[in-house]
Description:
By secondary structure, this protein is α/β, with parallel strands linked by helices. It has ten helices and seven strands. The protein folds into two domains: 5-161, Alpha/beta knot, CATH 3.40.1280; 179-237, no CATH class. The protein has helices at 14-26, 44-49, 53-56, 66-69, 93-105, 123-127, 146-161, 179-195, 205-218, 223-237; strands at 5-9, 32-35, 61-63, 75-79, 90-91, 110-114, 131-133. Strand 1, helix 1 (14-26) and strand 2 (32-35) form a beta-alpha-beta unit. Helix 1 packs parallel to helix 7 (146-161) and helix 8 runs parallel beside helix 10 (223-237). It is elongated. The chain starts with a strand and ends in a 5-residue tail after the last helix. The mean pLDDT is 88.
Amino acid sequence: MNTPAIILVQPQMGENIGAAARAMFNLGLDELRLVSPRDGWPSPAADKNSAGALARMQNVQVFDTLNEAIADLHYVIAATARPRDMLKPVYTPEAGIKECRTRADQGQKTGFIFGPERMGLINDAIAKCHGVITIPTNPDFSSLNLAQSVLLLAYEWTRNQDNTPDKIMEMGDSFPVDQEKLEEFLTRLEEELETRRFFRTEEIRPTMKRNIRGIFTRADLSDQEVRTLHGMLSALIGKKAS
């Protein structure tokens, strides 16, 4: 898969590099590039804080300049606050990832650029980028650490390609009950409630029946659960389950 490179410009602490690498690899990204890391490279602190991610990723590439680090890339986006004096597209994380994924599907090589922990990317670095991703944060407390920022964009990249359904209900050996069997149970339940005069007045009977049906249809019951309900009802009325 044509995944993006993560480029850290002048990262200041090996621990943060390691945490960023861990975040990347958690979500399937394994190409890390460093531009002039303050404490040099390799870094024992980075190795330790990566929890083994660095040992399993591609070899980290180290460059003296940002120009060298992005020379082979076709489209790069800076993760930074909105630039006030540059005319550049400013993406949400979701939109920026979609743009890069579209380009990656066309064979282009993309990258996300992150600045130093203390001050972020300078304007000269942002000027080299095709666009900007700004992560929405609390305006009164907007500072994210380096690994958090990398994690958010790596997650968006993975989420954009993920075809997992929004909701999964593990049914085991059972299967959702079909409407005929559900109707059999609901009819039986209504008949037993009628026998025991649960519906106190004729006026409220239709509404109460609809409410009862709503409870059980909304529950998205399995075949086994409906059999269990039959058994519970039989126990309550003192009869064998049908």
